[in-house]
Design goal:
This protein is of the alpha/beta class. The protein has helices spanning 3-12, 45-53, 69-73, 85-93, 129-142, 185-194; strands at residues 19-22, 28-31, 56-61, 76-82, 99-101, 113-118, 143-154, 161-170, 173-174, 178-183, 197-204, 208-215.
Length: 216
C-alpha cells in the first residue's frame, strides 16, 4: 500500500493530515511532509553543498516530489527515480518529466552516471546490512569510471549500525512495514571498501554528514 505517495499527493492538493512513522518499539515519530516540497532556498547547507558538487549525467535516487530536480537540472542531465508511482505522479505534476518509477535494486538504464545523489538519508533504503552491500554493488555498476556517489546520512554514533522496521501511519491508516538502516561513518566506509569503493567525508554537522563515494 503506497500510503506515503498517497499522503504526498494529498498534501500537494491541500490536505495537511499528519504523517507518522512508527518504530519497532511502537513509538510514533512525526514526519514533516512539507520537507518534500522545499525549494532550493530552503535546503540546508549540506543539501546545497551536495547540489553544488553534482555534475554531468546525474541520477537522483528517491527523487520524491522532484523538488530538487529543477536545481539539479542546472548541473547536468538528470534522471530522478522513485519506487512509488504516486510520488512520481506528484513529481510530474510539479513539472519534472525526467522522473520515472524505478527500483534502484533492479534499475538497468542504457547509460552510466557521473553523479548519483541521495538526499534525505536515502542511502538507508537497503534496510539491512546485506541489502546495503547489494545497493553499493549496484551503484558501482551504474557509475562511470570517475563517477561519484553523493549522499547525506544521519550523523549516527550509537554503534556501528541500526536496522529499523518502520510503519507509516496516515489518517489512522497503517501502511506496509519497511526496513531502514542507519550507520556510522566507519561502518559505511568498511562496506564501501568491500565493494572497492572509497568514502570521503565532505562535511559534518550535529545531525548530518555529507559523503562522497568513488571507485577505488
Amino acid at each position: 500500500m503506497d500510503i506515503f505517495g498517497e499522503a504526498l499527493l494529498a498534501f500537494k492538493n491541500g490536505n495537511r493530515s499528519t504523517f507518522y512513522l512508527k518504530d519497532e518499539k511502537g513509538e510514533k515519530h512525526l514526519y514533516n511532509l512539507a520537507e518534500r516540497f522545499r525549494p532550493y532556498s530552503k535546503l540546508n547547507k549540506s543539501e546545497k553543498k551536495l547540489v553544488s558538487l553534482s555534475h554531468g549525467d546525474i541520477l537522483d535516487v528517491g527523487c520524491g516530489t522532484g523538488n530538487i530536480i529543477p536545481t539539479l537540472n542546472k548541473r547536468g542531465s538528470v534522471v530522478g527515480i522513485d519506487i512509488s508511482p504516486r510520488v512520481i505522479e506528484v513529481a510530474k505534476k510539479n513539472g519534472c518529466n525526467n522522473c520515472i518509477v524505478a527500483n534502484i535494486f533492479s534499475y538497468k538504464p542504457n547509460r552510466k552516471f557521473d553523479t548519483i545523489t541521495f538526499f534525505g538519508n536515502n542511502l538507508g533504503i537497503g534496510g539491512t546490512v546485506d541489502k546495503t552491500e547489494k545497493l553499493l554493488q549496484n551503484l558501482k555498476h551504474l557509475l562511470k569510471r570517475d563517477g561519484q556517489i553523493l549522499a547525506i546520512t544521519h550523523n549516527y554514533n550509537a554503534g556501528n549500525y541500526k536496522e529499523m522496521i518502520l510503519t507509516p501511519i496516515w489518517k489512522n491508516r497503517h501502511g506496509s512495514k519497511f526496513d531502514w538502516l542507519i550507520f556510522n561513518n566507519n561502518f559505511l566506509s568498511k562496506l564501501c571498501l568491500e565493494q572497492n569503493l572509497k568514502l570521503q567525508v565532505i562535511s559534518t554537522s550535529w545531525k548530518y554528514r555529507l559523503v562522497r563515494i568513488r571507485k577505488v
